[in-house]
């Protein structure tokens, strides 16, 4: 509990004594309500309750505005029980029919996530105004009742304002309700309800629904753009796999100077750099961060930077950034452990895991994927099995398909193909594509053709089988001069509608001089 300095406590007491004197001297609402409002908006809104309670003892000292100020304090804290007490007093003294009090109660209940009481208040309002409708639509959306928010919006009998539209378009974004969102967008165009907050909400809606062409058109034609606009469009392209476009937009953002990237922008562009191996641009982003006094190397940005370096193969810089972080969370540890494993540094991965435990950070399922992968690449089968059993029995983490695939890969790389197959048979869940793919790859490496048929049967009768795994099986048959079997697998791929994606590669050009 934070202890207030004595000077601050004395100042508060003096202020309350002055207010109490004012209450005795001139107990009129028009004099007292502004004082109550200032207390409700202060850094210590609980002090408003002391004054509010004193006002209630004087019948002529309060009116309906008094309750709205007191409810504001309940919202700021929040104070659910006090809000219920105020609601009961409003009903008792006959002020409940006032629209300002009803809207304040509606907003209060939504803030404290009491959706049922909020809906009851809304239904009791005889003629809801735009504030009432906006509160119920916004509250339902923020509390996770997006579909109900859209239904409420569609039944509005007053014209919505831009805040209402932002709330309902956000609900459409979260649900992926493309048709409803387009209708809201159309309404905003017809009514000329445009401001940067609404424009950003509409942009975010099209981005989240995957309609990047429309999103780009809206973005290019926005009368004003801020960092939220740029972050939405950069993140939209990065998250949908159009990483080159995301990087180009980030360069354009820097070049135009319309807005400074924030942490979310940097995380998005670093994610794009990771996906396409754009090390030079990732390094420039790192340099750019160092020129900004308002940006700290930590949290999501620090973790994204580590992820970029390990995926681009610069393990030295990844380690350097990792040790620079003042606060390392589970994501930091899991990222560096998985990254070291990915780059073949098995023993360093195990050392990092030990250091992680020394710092008191408990591993999660991602950490164990990195550990098992490290043991697989380093040929540490016994150590890997110890980790796998510790994950289940010590840390109570239920193994997922990736964990099982790592163990099979670990056995397979060590040439223990029979053990790998036996492990698959003992799995408590049905093996899926990644598991069979790991065994198939091991058989191809060690030239074991005897298992091909059993693997083929497992692959074709399991879920999650990628085109690459089936293509590997076909190529394995072809490598053993079993061309008929190879063609059969290709025919089955065509019959199943599975097509091998063409390989892609990137060549990183020089970083343009305008962003150096």
TrEMBL record:
In residue terms, where are the PPR repeats? 226-260, 329-363
Annotated keywords: Repeat
The UniProt entry, under PROSITE patterns, shows: PPR
Any GO MF annotation of the entry: RNA binding
Q: What Pfam families does this protein map onto?
A: E_motif, PPR, PPR_2
Q: Which GO terms describe its biological process?
A: RNA modification
Q: Which InterPro entries match?
A: E_motif (IPR046848), PPR_At4g14850-like_plant (IPR046960), PPR_rpt (IPR002885), TPR-like_helical_dom_sf (IPR011990)
Transmembrane helix listed as a keyword: no
Which protein are we looking at? Pentatricopeptide repeat-containing protein
Q: What's the source species for this entry?
A: Rhamnella rubrinervis
């Amino acid at each position: 509990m934070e202890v207030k300095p004595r000077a601050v406590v004395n100042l508060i007491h003096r202020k309350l004594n002055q207010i109490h004197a004012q209450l005795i001297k001139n107990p009129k609402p028009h004099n007292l309500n502004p004082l109550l409002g200032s207390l409700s908006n202060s850094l210590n809104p609980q002090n408003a309750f002391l004054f509010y309670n004193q006002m209630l003892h004087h019948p002529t000292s309060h009116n309906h505005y008094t309750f709205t100020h007191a409810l504001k304090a309940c919202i700021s804290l929040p104070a659910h029980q006090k809000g219920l007490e105020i609601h009961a007093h409003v009903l008792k003294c006959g002020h409940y029919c006032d629209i300002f009090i009803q809207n304040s109660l509606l907003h209060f209940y939504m803030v404290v996530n009491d959706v049922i009481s909020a809906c009851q208040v809304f239904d009791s309002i005889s003629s809801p105004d735009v504030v009432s409708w906006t509160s119920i639509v916004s509250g339902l959306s923020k509390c996770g009742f997006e579909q109900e928010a859209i239904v409420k919006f569609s039944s509005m009998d007053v014209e919505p304002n831009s805040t209402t539209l932002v709330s309902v378009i956000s609900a459409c974004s979260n649900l992926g309700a493309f048709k409803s969102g387009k209708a809201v967008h159309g309404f905003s165009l017809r009514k000329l309800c445009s401001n940067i907050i609404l424009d950003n909400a509409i942009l975010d809606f099209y981005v989240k629904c995957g309609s990047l062409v429309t999103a780009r058109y809206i973005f290019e034609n926005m009368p004003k753009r801020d960092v939220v606009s740029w972050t939405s469009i950069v993140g939209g392209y990065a998250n949908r796999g159009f990483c080159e476009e995301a990087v180009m937009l980030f360069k354009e953002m820097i070049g135009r100077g319309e807005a400074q990237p924030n942490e979310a922008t940097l995380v998005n562009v670093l994610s794009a750099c990771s996906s396409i191996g754009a090390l030079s641009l990732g390094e420039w982003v790192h340099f750019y961060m160092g020129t900004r006094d308002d940006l700290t190397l930590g949290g999501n940005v620090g973790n994204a930077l580590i992820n970029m370096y390990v995926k681009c193969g610069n393990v030295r810089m990844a380690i350097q950034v990792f040790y620079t972080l003042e606060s390392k969370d589970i994501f930091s540890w899991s990222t560096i452990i998985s990254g070291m494993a990915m780059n073949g540094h098995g023993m360093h991965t195990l050392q990092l895991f030990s250091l992680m435990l020394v710092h008191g950070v408990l591993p999660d399922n991602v950490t164990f994927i990195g550990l098992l992968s490290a043991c697989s690449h380093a040929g540490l089968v016994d150590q890997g099995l110890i980790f796998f059993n510790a994950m289940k029995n010590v840390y109570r983490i239920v193994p997922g398909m990736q964990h099982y695939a790592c163990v099979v890969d670990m056995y397979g790389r060590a040439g223990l193909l029979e053990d790998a197959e036996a492990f698959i048979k003992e799995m408590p869940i049905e093996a899926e594509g990644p598991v069979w793919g790991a065994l198939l790859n091991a058989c191809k490496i060690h030239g074991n053709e005897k298992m091909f048929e059993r693997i083929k049967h497992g692959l074709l009768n399991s879920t999650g089988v990628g085109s690459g795994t089936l293509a590997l099986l076909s190529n394995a048959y072809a490598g053993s001069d079993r061309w008929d079997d190879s063609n059969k697998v290709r025919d089955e791929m065509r019959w199943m509608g599975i097509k091998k994606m063409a390989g892609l590669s990137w060549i990183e050009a020089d970083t343009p001089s305008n962003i150096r």
